[in-house]
Amino acid sequence: MTLNEWTGTEAPVARTQKARGLLKLREEQSAAQLYGGSIPQFALVQNEADLDHLIHSWLAECDAEPSTMQMFCRPCPVRPRHGFVDSGPVDGPAEMRALWKEAQANDPQAEMLVMKPVAASCSAIYTPTSISFGPNNDGATAGADSHIMFHGEPTPGRLDKISEGKGIAEGEVPYVEVVYDDDYQPHVVQVRSGPAISAEPDFIPAVIYPNNIVQPSGEDLIEWEQMAADWEEGTVIYHPGGNRASHYAIHCVNNKIPYITTFEPVLGRRLEPTEPIAEIDIEAFRMGIMTGTHLDIPFAKSVELMLFGLHTSALNSTPTSWKLVGMGAMQCLRLGAAACLGEFRHHQRRKRLARRQIFENAFEDFFGHQKQMVKAYRSFSRSRWRSGYGGPKWAECAHQNMFLWLEVLEFMKEPTQGRARHILDAYNRAVNVAHNGGWLFNKFASGDLMDQAAAGNPSFFIRAVPTIFRCVGLSRFEPGWTRMRRPRVLHLQNVDGVRSLVHNDEQHNRTGNPDYVPKPKPTGIKAVQGIMRENILHLQIKLHGKPGYITRDIPIAASQVPQVQSLHKESVSWATDKPYTQFLFQHTTDSEGPVLTDWHGLTVIKPDTPAMGISVESLHICIV
Fold first, then answer.
1. In this structure, what are the phi and psi dihedrals at residue 25, rounded to the nearest 5 degrees?
2. CA–CA separation, 105 vs 101, rounded Å?
3. What's the pLDDT at 488?
4. Burial profile 298-315: b = 16 or more Cβ within 10 angstroms, e = fewer
5. Listing from the earlier edge strand, what are the strands of the sheet with 618-623?
6. Which residues are registered as beta bridge partners of 70?
7. I want to staple 595 with a disulfide (CB 3.0 to 4.6 A). Which of 296, 414, 442, 560 is the partner?
8. Is it the case that residue 504 has pLDDT exceeding 50?
9. CA-to-CA distance for 288 and 97, rounded, in angstroms?
10. Would you state the pLDDT for residue 237?
11. Are 286 and 412 in contact (CB under 8 A)?
């Protein structure tokens, strides 16, 4: 009987958990569906007769010399434990018999799985909360140059299917061992029982007494992001069936809002912290962005890296994990630009390149193509597109891509924790954006890939390992970021860490848009004076080269009127004629904050230092 014929026979009754796990997988034919891989042909040796029959039939089938025959043998003890006889390749019947005798000496009830060896490029171990990977056949199991990444736990029904009938001990979880051949195709070689690896499913950053419990109910992602930013202290998110890799959780972690999946919180009942918020490794994150800028991988693998980085960002804190998140953000940026520019070609009058060519050009030459996104956004949002092409949904895709682009650009100029968190928010939004035909990135990979990643589907994480394994060893310094400048047409406004994009386009004026207000040219401030009339500050501004004064009447809080009256009765002048769009106006504040706020074209912004040697808080008032 050959190994192939043995595989097709009725499965024997296995004595050991490892054998039961692999036999159950073969019986279900579920490896491809659950894990995205295949199961190598194997035979189960339970006694000497089985061993003799297997050796003789295999030698006869192969017509091979005994000294050149190689198999992979996995001894299986009845009681799974560390330190049992090591698995490995054997050369010829003599070594196979010696390994079998060693296993029997350690456990008389032991069995042995025998299969064709896989020339492995890398290996991995999947558990419901983690994926570890390393080089060769045993890099993941032996811990040689290996890495571990935590991910969101799969949905309960899928988790039950993974464990069902495979002899997983109570209180333990399945460990699925996978090896990848030279073509990076996964092969499931073992399912064993083991302890759960801690990846806390709940996020509680500090002691809290809930006063507001919110349960997600299908909110739009952008709406949820704004809600997360606006919630006050004491708000707790209860998300039954959710996980830490979900988009809901990512926004909660970024805003330090407790996110609970394992139990229902009670109003007023104290919640203990689960873990501190890990700081982002700025250098690793920055290196990931630079390395990902010109990473040369197929589009489908780039999508895998993008989703892997996003859906592990809330659960990992090692330099390797943050490097992968940075690389994933850059794949999102490059792929998003390629998709938008590929659609934009339909609105160009000159001879168009094929869509695939535009995809490749934009993906390969990020710095040369990214600024074209401004033109694409204008076209999508302002031009007339026929049904099924361009239009508002594509404008939103381009809009979110530019948000991410500018966040990365600002971070690369000033790498801080705050700016890194802004990238994660923009990254999350950009991944989830949709165009007229569905998910933006379905032009490069299967449309259900995003759902698999968000649901913790084992097949997504297992199939992504070869890409991730290759990427962790790459590093590249990219000087292009230091030379890249934001287009003048784009301006950033920062309000409490929330970034908004302002487009100032002269096309409004050319097309006769009645709502267009031209931006005034910069001019110098000659003098400023103000006087209080009851609770109204009457402000007069003298500009160089302009007759008369510009006047503004600004309501002042009643508690602040005496202080303002004592400060602003005389003109303040500057000797220089250098053009400015800002001037200094001094006033005091109380615990409630600044007196002046945005009002009728005046924008008030705190400066970093006081001015003119007066010990009061100073403000810039910008004429807009």
1. -60, -45
2. 6
3. 58
4. ebebbbbbbbbbbbbbbb
5. 582-586, 618-623, 602-605
6. 91
7. 560
8. no
9. 49
10. 92
11. yes
Tokens of 616: 């009061």
Element (H, E) at 553: strand 550-555
Token pair 């490794």 is found at: 281
Q: How far lies 395's CA from each of 55, 378, 381, 431, 518, in Å?
A: 65, 8, 5, 15, 23
Among 478, 120, 477, 36, CA closest to 300:
36
Token code pair at residue 563: 């202080």
Neighbouring-strand partners of residue 21: none
Q: How far apart are CA 434 and CA 393, in angstroms?
A: 7
DSSP state string for 297-339: --HHHHHHHHHHHHHHTTT--SHHHHHHHHHHHHHHHHHHHHH
Q: Map tokens 């394994």 to a residue.
A: 469
| Span 322-338, pLDDT tens digits | 999 999 999 999 999 99
**What totals of helices (H) and strands (E) does the chain contain, helices first?**
22, 23
Tell me the three state secondary structure of residue 113: strand
How confident is the model over 434-438, as a mean pLDDT?
A: 76
**Sole residue written with tokens 């014929």:** 5
- What sign does the CA torsion over 161, 165, 171, 175 have? negative
User: Which residue is listed with tokens 């054997």?
Assistant: 90
Domains in the chain (CATH in brackets) are 3-195 (3.30.470), 283-305+318-495 (no CATH), 525-623 (no CATH)
pLDDT of 241 over the 70 cut:
no
**400 with 339: CB under 8 angstroms?**
no
Q: Where are the alpha helices (DSSP H) in 350-457?
A: 355-364, 366-369, 372-382, 392-413, 417-432, 449-454
Mean of the per-residue pLDDT values for the chain?
74
Q: With the C-alpha atoms ordered 187, 190, 191, 195, is the resulting torsion angle positive or negative?
A: negative
Q: What single letter denotes the amino acid at residue 192?
A: R
Structural element, H or E, at residue 76: strand 70-76
Q: Which one of 285-294, 307-316, 514-523 scores highest in mean pLDDT?
A: 285-294
In the predicted model, is pLDDT for residue 411 greater than 70? yes
Query: Torsion angle, CA of 138/141/144/146, rounded to 10 degrees?
Result: 110
Amino acid at 265: P
Q: What are the two backbone dihedrals, phi and then psi, of residue 175, each rounded to the nearest 5 degrees?
A: -110, 115
Section 345-352 average pLDDT: 68
Q: Which residue has the tokens 């490097």?
A: 323
Q: What is the 3-state secondary structure (H, E, C) of 393-418?
A: HHHHHHHHHHHHHHHHHHHHHCCCHH
Torsion on CA atoms 58, 63, 65, 68, rounded to nearest 10: -60
DSSP state, residue 17: H
Q: CB of 481 within 8 A of CB of 319?
A: no
pLDDT, one tens digit per residue, over 147-205 is 878 887 776 666 666 667 667 777 788 888 888 988 888 888 888 777 776 667 688 88
For the sheet containing 88-91, what is the strand order?
42-45, 111-115, 70-76, 88-91
Report in angstroms the alpha-carbon separations of 329 from 176, 285, 535. 29, 10, 51
125, amino acid identity: I
Q: How many CB atoms lie within 10 A of CB 157?
A: 8
The yes-or-no verdict on residue 508 having pLDDT over 50 is no
553 burial via Cβ count (<10 Å: 0-12, 13-18, 19+): exposed
Which comes out higher in pLDDT, residue 267 or 85?
267
Per-residue pLDDT at 353: 78
- Phi/psi region, residue 296 (left: phi>0; alpha: psi -120 to 50; beta: rest), is beta
